[in-house]
Amino acid sequence: MTHMKGERGLHELYAEDPQTADRIVFGRKAHADRRGFLRGAGLAAMGSLIGASIPFHRNMPAGLIPVAFAQMDEGALIAEKDGLVVLSDRPINMETPAHLLDDDVTPAARHFVRNNGLVPDMALAGNPSGWTLTVDGEVDSPMELSLEDLENQFEVVTLRLVVECGGNGRAFYNPGASGNQWTTGAVACAEWTGVRLKDVLEAAGVRSSAVYTAHYGMDTHLSGDPEKDPISRGVPIEKAMEPHNLIAVRMNGEPLPALHGFPCRLVVPGWPGSCSQKWLRRIQVRDVVHDGAKMTGASYRVPAYPVAPGTEVPDSDMVIIESMPVKSLITAPESGAEVSVGSVDVRGHAWSGDTPVAAMEVSVDFGQTWAAAELAPEPNPYAWRRWTASVELPIGGYYEIWAKAIDANGAAQPPTTPGWNPKGYVNNMFHRIALFAT
Ligand SMILES: Nc1nc2c(c(=O)[nH]1)N[C@H]1C(S)=C(S)[C@@H](COP(=O)(O)O)O[C@H]1N2
Ligand SMILES: [Mo]
Q1: Any idea what DSSP says for residue 225?
Q2: Domain that holds residue 30
Q3: CA of residue 273 to ligand 1 center, whole Å
Q4: Which of 73, 181, 286, 352 could form a disulfide linkage to 9, CB 3.0–4.6 angstroms apart?
Q5: Counting ligands in written order, which one lies closest to the CA of residue 190?
Q6: What is the pLDDT of residue 302?
Q7: Residues 264 and 313 in one domain
Q8: Region at 424 (left for phi over 0; alpha for psi -120 to 50; beta for the rest)
């Protein structure tokens, strides 16, 4: 069960301000061409979201919340999670304690959640009817694909892929940065099933003018304004054509959960999680670097050069974060555990961005000496790799286990926060746990 800091469901919203609530409920863009339902039209269209027609909809007072909607608010989704820490509930942001990330394949109930806006109605209702994916822009043949089209026209593949928020580890920077105070738990490795982004783009015929993708989702901006996107990011066309990017329709063998992008999302592994658009409705190929919501300013960007902590960096000197750095977690024992003097088994996962993990080391003496851990083979590129080690704790007392992953270029995790940046991104410092040996 999950700790809730106070949920703000539709009931509360309707009690406070029925008109805004109506706008949020009926004005949500379930699809680009369905923007801004009028109230009357909304009542009829609402039937399709509930999954049945509403014979007496003309009698339904404006501002009255349909009971079926009330049962599918975001608070119910928070409760589906298992042991996660809620960083905010509007939008929903939840991270996973390290010891709950021990599985090779992260269960949906333990996968972190990073939302910039509100979960779209289609996801809350779990009914994908009417959903299509538009592929347009710098392509020879723009396409509009249903879920069936995706699975029938393209090879369906299943991959274990790490999704990590670019802001994971933000809480450790000093001076701190605004935004969700992620510690170590905005990362997971689920098994995603879908079709390759590359195959779909190739079928549309990417033109030589293509520079960048632009991803659009169905979620609602926190303001309720249907003209605003909560987030719309993209990747350079070269990265988009990498064969491990998926247009995913299943997570761990099940339809995508509402919080993770039902009915369809991108998974672009190795780059900040923000590239993996949830509730996907459109992929536009552009002839310029995409300038959608959270592409510009300081969002998902770091200074082009090292700066002293606290420096004010002009936006023009900020560059887009691309490949994520090498990183690891200790998932067992749980930090703070009591163990017996002697040998202790420790384990966890190691992952990285476009440069693969090459080695994993652990230390029990605050980094004075390091021992190699055993690294299991990677199930597929961009999955995290299991590491295991047996360490010796010679006498009773307090120990810390430090873990360090190293990538194929020789880049290693640093002992403290790496290059300070204004928004606190890409912190890949060592993970440390405490052990009490008796
Ligand atoms: N439509 C949409 N897609 C989105 C987001 C969002 O707010 N809306 N958040 C992004 C960010 S910042 C991250 S880190 C990942 C998180 O994916 P998860 O919630 O499935 O863990 O989704 C990305 N895709
Ligand atoms: Mo993110």
Answers
A1: -
A2: 10-71
A3: 6
A4: 73
A5: 1
A6: 98
A7: yes
A8: left
- Tell me the whole-structure pTM to 2 decimals: 0.86
Asked if residue 69 has pLDDT above 80, the reply is no
Nearest to 335 by CA among 425, 238, 432, 262: 432
pLDDT interval class at 58 (50, 70, 90): confident
Same structural domain, 312 and 338: no
36 pLDDT tier (thresholds 50, 70, 90): very low
Is residue 192 in some structural domain? yes
Using the atom order of ligand 1, give the atom closest to the CA of residue 114: 19
Compute the distance between CA of residue 53 and CA of residue 49 in angstroms, rounded to an integer.
9
204, 276: one domain: yes
pLDDT of residue 60: 74
Split into its structural domains, the chain has a count of: 3
Which one, of 319, 269, 325, lies nearest residue 295 by Cα?
319
pLDDT at 34: 28
CA of 338 to the centre of ligand 1 (A): 36
User: Is residue 217 in contact with ligand 1, taking CB distance under 6 Å?
Assistant: yes
Which ligand ends up closest to the CA of 116? 1
As separate numbers, helices (DSSP H) first and strands (DSSP E) second, the chain gives 9, 23
- One domain for residues 241 and 106: yes
**Mean pLDDT of all residues in 222-246:** 97
pLDDT digits (tens, 9 = 90+) for 121-147: 999 999 999 999 999 999 999 999 999
Residue 369: inside a domain? yes
Residue 404 maps to a domain: yes
What is the token pair recorded at 416? 């403290």
Q: Name the residue with the closest Cα to ligand 1, atom 24.
A: 277
- Examine the pLDDT at 42 and tell me if it is beyond 70: no
245 lines ligand 1 (CB under 6 A): no
> What is the pLDDT averaged over residues 64-76?
67
**Cβ 14 vs Cβ 21: under 8 Å:** yes
Whether residue 334 sits in one domain with residue 281: no
Note the Cα 163 to chain centre separation in Å: 6
User: How far apart are alpha carbons 119 and 124 in whole angstroms?
Assistant: 7
Q: Ligand 2 center to residue 410 CA distance, Å?
A: 26
pLDDT greater than 80 at residue 46: no
Mutate to test the pocket of ligand 1, among 95, 235, 278, 426 (most ligand atoms within 8 A of CB): 278
**231 alpha carbon – ligand 1 mean position (Å):** 8
**Beta carbon of 92 within 6 Å of any ligand 1 atom:** no
Give residue 274 CA to ligand 2 midpoint distance, Å. 5
pLDDT of amino acid 25: 54
120 and 249, same domain (yes or no): yes
* pLDDT at position 15: 64
The residue whose C-alpha atom lies closest to atom 12 belonging to ligand 1 is 274
Span from the CA of 156 to the centroid of ligand 1 (angstroms): 22
Judgement on whether residues 245 and 124 belong to the same structural domain of the protein: yes
Residues 152 and 300 in one domain: yes
